[in-house]
Amino acid sequence: GENVEQHPSTLSVQEGDSAVIKCTYSDSASNYFPWYKQELGKRPQLIIDIRSNVGEKKDQRIAVTLNKTAKHFSLHITETQPEDSAVYFCAVKGDSGAGSYQLTFGKGTKLSVIP
Amino acid sequence: DGGITQSPKYLFRKEGQNVTLSCEQNLNHDAMYWYRQDPGQGLRLIYYSQIVNDFQKGDIAEGYSVSREKKESFPLTVTSAQKNPTAFYLCASKISPAKRNTEAFFGQGTRLTVV
User: Rounded to whole angstroms, how far apart are CA atoms A44 and B108?
Assistant: First the structure.
């Protein structure tokens, strides 16, 4: 099955700095890569996603880059704000078999933005 | 707020008892999922269902059971066979696995504690 590694597990940045979280995956047939944000005590919510035919996608201060050859993708948050503090999860969905029906999640990164 | 509701928010169970967690969605989604979230472990898939009267085991199905008698509902039973049931349980739904690369919407979660 799919194996997703997420790094780092914790990340502290000063307000205004950038944050980068990286995920690697094992199944080269995977074709969908969403990122979820989970604030303390709340449900995970999709913040951005990318499909395998695209190398980069931006949405205001958030961007995701995908390197299919190396099988890794990254979340970039610029000009971080205290409200960006949360746990971020990457996920991967395959393109065949059982993996095409489910998301496999990384273990999460706890981001703390220091005012 | 997302159209997917889990109840109760907090649940306490005595050892040896079965307990059922509720998940209801009014989004007309075909696919529904149950995840377990433990600190530092990310989200792990317990069961998923693509359509009414059909469901499949995920990565950690042992000690759990589900049913999908209605499109809107996907209850999860934590049985006495589950060795370590204390965790945060998240239900999710998405339009359809056939429309593969679409957002999964999460419920607000149920925190189960065995006492």
Answer: 8
Total beta-carbon pairs less than 8 A apart between chain A and chain B: 55
Any A CB within 8 A of B15 CB: no
CA atoms of A87 and B91, how far apart (whole Å): 18
Closest CA to B15 of B80, B76, B61, B64: B80
| Residues of A in Cβ contact (< 8 Å) with B41 | 107
Distance (Å, whole) CA B107 – CA B75:
13
- Pairwise CA distance, residues A93 & B94, whole Å: 13
For chain B, give the number of residues. Answer: 115
Q: Per the omega criterion (within 30 degrees of 0), is the bond before B8 cis?
A: yes
pLDDT digit string, tens, across residues B2-45: 599 999 999 999 988 999 999 999 999 999 999 999 988 889 99
Q: Give the residue from chain B lying closest to A95, CA to CA.
A: B100
Distance CA A72, CA A26 (A): 9
Cβ under 8 Å to A: B residues 21-50: 31, 33, 35, 40-45, 48, 50
